[in-house]
Write a structure and sequence with these properties.
Length: 413
Amino acid sequence: MTKLYNRILTLALFLALIGCGTPATDPISPSISASLSPAPTSSSSPSPTLAPALLRSGQASFRSRVAGTPFVHPGALNNQADLDFTKVQIAAGKDPWARVFNEMKLSALRSNRTTAPTTETAQKLDGRRAYANALAWIYTGEVPYAENAIGILNVWGKTFTGYSPVEGQNLLVAGWTGSLLGPAAELMRDYPGWVPADKALVQTMFREKFYPALNTMSTWNGNVDLTQIDAMLSIAVFNDDEAEFNLGLQRLEARLPAYFYLKSDGGVPSIAGDGGNVNKFWSNPTLWVDGLTQETCRDNDHHGQYGMASALHAAEVAWNQGVDVYAQDAERFTATLELMAAQLLSGKMQGTCVNNVTTTDLYDTWEIGYNHYHNRMGMNLPNTYKLITTQVRQRGMNDWNIFYETLTHAGPE
């Protein structure tokens, strides 16, 4: 009864925030959905200025976790209900889950390392292997996968020396790597074969070796900060670390309106690294429309997909811990999903950038947002749906912290 009450309360809050209007019903429209705010014209909506406050006037703050309440496990990027759903689909041989699982298993390999890697490429490989093995263990119950996963995590716990210097590219690499190792560790948390002392070493390693690089906010393009936040929240869940979790939420609250544009904000909030020049920081958009990202015109939706992925990962972890970031920023997230999907479907930037041709890169990072807003909340996102079903599930790439999200978060049709 408590769970049902919480779901009803969440839905009521969501409807109050976004209104009760009916979204567009065309499930395959290649243009910007009519459910989005009307695109501003150059005469009616000049380039926004930097707002003096970090958060827009009147914006409610994300509530922190209720102090002292236990963390939900598993509850990083994957919750138990979603894991159980996918496990059933795999066992039944249903597409896309069974097909993507067989592809993901190719990464579920044993590592022969005796020390934690130091290069970007090697760290990515270890992170991918740890997460792939952890998922394979959950979905199949086969012990070798579990032993592979904790073997990798134990090497990191005992030998990783951290990121030095704590600046520049290392801030991004820590986010990328932590966003893989954190969810992997959380999935393995209750594996009976994981020696408690070894698990404790991994938790200590995260606190002492990852926190310094994650908690130092990158002032580069916003996808870096969002990737750090992604890692912060997942690791905080594994570590039962309330302070770190709330720090990640605070960072997310500041970054979202400074990365995902909404005309209703009344300006783009200033944030460290913007140089006081919003147009330059946003790569000089030619049209400011709801759903534009700070990196949309940087490379025509390549890095924008990474930024969106990390932001939605963070929202999903928060959701799994009872903090509803999704509702507060429903308009922001859905506008981004629909605008970017429309751009990638058409191959055109919809007039938002000087270069009107989109990137050809497409990543497997659309299911998390679609699963929440459509499957959980009943919203119609026609462009996102079409992109997922016609392209993402067929050719979406998995790289760094974007890892087989069709497998883990594709919901029931």
